[in-house]
Write a structure and sequence with these properties.
The chain is an alpha/beta fold. The chain has 13 helices and six strands. Helix 9 crosses helix 10 and helix 10 packs parallel to helix 13.
């Protein structure tokens, strides 16, 4: 992602201008970098104005520690978003990000839900597995068209603390618990639909896609190993929803 991130601090780059506007929504911007992240990428993230913390290698990719760290800041709301998704969103629909403060204080948890169009940009290995999980979670929490797996939420401190305090294994059920833990704690939950949370992964494979063609690249991406990983994640989400 280094090339895209470098644009965030580049003079006269429209993406940098969009980021400058969106960044004003936040008291602080924190990135938790996985241990293998290249030093040059970390430096590019820091130049863009993010505080950078080093993550850990763990089954949950350090996500629970990330929320715990965010709670150390004196803020009332925490907007979580996978960084690759955030940069794609900023590139494609910056006005959606700019206007998020208009809606993010309505509930303890605001699920940033993908529109039908945005969800359809994802490959079947994701839409089929995430679709099952989302229907189950929607039934459990009583919010129609819930989207627990968009990779982005806004939590109040109460909701974030409920997630940190949630019992159970620390693994990729995080993405279900990000919604279910606040629900179990009695937090209010709402849904805000956006276009910008499209499938962002192709952004990172532009050279391969140009060489192979998108269809051939997508067929390669949806390998048996990828399908197995997604089904295993769906199993974790189902266990959380039924607990």
């Amino acid at each position: 992602m280094r090339q895209s991130i470098q644009r965030l601090s580049a003079d006269a780059d429209p993406l940098a201008a969009a980021w400058h506007v969106v960044a004003s929504n936040y008291a602080a911007c924190l990135v938790v970098a996985s241990p293998p992240t290249a030093r040059t990428t970390i430096e590019a993230v820091a130049r863009a104005g993010f505080e950078v913390a080093t993550g850990v290698e763990a089954p949950d990719r350090g996500l629970w520690d990330m929320v715990r760290t965010a709670l150390e800041y004196p803020v009332e709301r925490i907007h979580f978003c996978d960084l690759d998704r955030f940069v794609h969103w900023l590139t494609r629909f910056p006005d959606e990000l700019r206007r998020l403060p208009e809606v993010w204080a309505r509930y303890d948890l605001t699920m940033l839900a993908r529109s039908a169009r945005a969800f359809a940009t994802h490959p079947p290995c994701q839409t089929l597995t995430e679709g099952i999980g989302n229907r189950l979670i929607a039934w459990r929490i009583g919010v129609a068209e819930a989207d627990a797996f968009s990779g982005s939420y806004v939590w109040s401190r109460r909701a974030a603390q409920a997630l940190v305090d949630a019992p159970g294994p620390r693994d990729l059920r995080f993405y279900a618990e990000g919604v279910l833990a606040p629900f179990r704690a009695g937090c209010t939950i709402g849904r805000h639909e956006v276009e910008g949370l499209e499938w962002e992964t192709p952004d990172q494979y532009a050279e391969e896609i140009a060489r192979l063609g998108y269809d051939a690249w997508l067929a390669q991406f949806q390998s048996p190993a990828q399908w197995r990983q997604r089904v295993e994640m769906a199993r974790l989400w189902t266990e959380s929803a039924l607990t």
